[in-house]
Amino acid sequence: MINHSELKFTEELELRKDYSTNYIILHHTEVETPHTVNDIHRWHQKKGYAGIGYHYFIRKDGEIYEGRPIETVGAHTKGYNGESVGIAYEGDFNKQTMSERQEDAGVMLIALLSLAYEDAGVVGRSELADGTSPGKHFPLERIKEKVETCKKWLKALFGEEKQFWIMDAEGRNHYVGLDNEANEKRQQMPSSFTDGNFDYNKILDLLSEVTEGNY
Q: First vs last Cα of the chain: how many Å apart?
């Protein structure tokens, strides 16, 4: 489930021009001790930002939180903020390794965003800017491979033309509900359907949550 954070920003946020999304940029927070989306929001405000610069934050337990509204310009990768979605993972992956739950949650989120923004490339911040983020122990290539597998599998299950994303009149993005045929296909999947160590039912459960009004 993607958790609403109800964050208050100190100024009006700029909308991304034509809602263009050329990159989905992955970061780590570079903090070893536990922290929350509200902590990051406060830290970024102390740096002079309007609030959290990332659009999503993934905790070590796999919980996903909204950060900056996705249709707005982020504050996470200089030179690319106006054309990207920024995702931050809790932890310092120069020193730590990622849990399976956090990795799987990220793959699910990125796969859904990649279906919504089909031209967006998935990159680590250090591929576009100076620095080491998302960290030398961050499983970047494995995540990219899993995302591509997930996208192919979801398209095969739900159809190439299935739309997962819409923008409402107020500029807010929302996932589109699956139609009856797609929901019937979902119900036919065995509860233990897996591919290697990656449980695709987790993706279906997330799809179910966001399309049943929990997002």
A: 7
Decide if 139 contacts 103 (C-beta within 8 A). Answer: yes
DSSP 117-143: STTPEEEEGGGTSSS-TT-TTS-HHHH
The dihedral built from the CA positions of residue 7, 10, 11 and 16, taken in this order, carries a sign that is negative
180-188 and 201-209 helices cross at what angle (nearest 10)? 140
Q: Kindly tell me if the per-residue pLDDT of 200 is higher than 60.
A: no
Contacts of 143 (CB under 8 A, 6+ apart): 26, 103, 106, 107, 110, 122
Instruction: Please determine, for residue 212, whether its predicted confidence score (pLDDT) is greater than 50.
Output: no
> Strand, helix or coil at 173?
strand
Question: CB–CB of 150/107 below 8 Å?
Answer: yes
> Residue 5: what residue type?
S
Rg of the chain over all Cα atoms, to the nearest angstrom: 17
Give residue 104's pLDDT: 87
Residue 39 structure tokens: 């902590």
75: left (phi over 0), alpha (psi -120 to 50) or beta: beta
pLDDT in tens, 164-191: 543 434 445 444 344 445 555 544 444 4
The 10s digit of each residue's pLDDT in 28-39 is: 999 999 999 999
pLDDT above 90: percentage of residues in the chain: 51
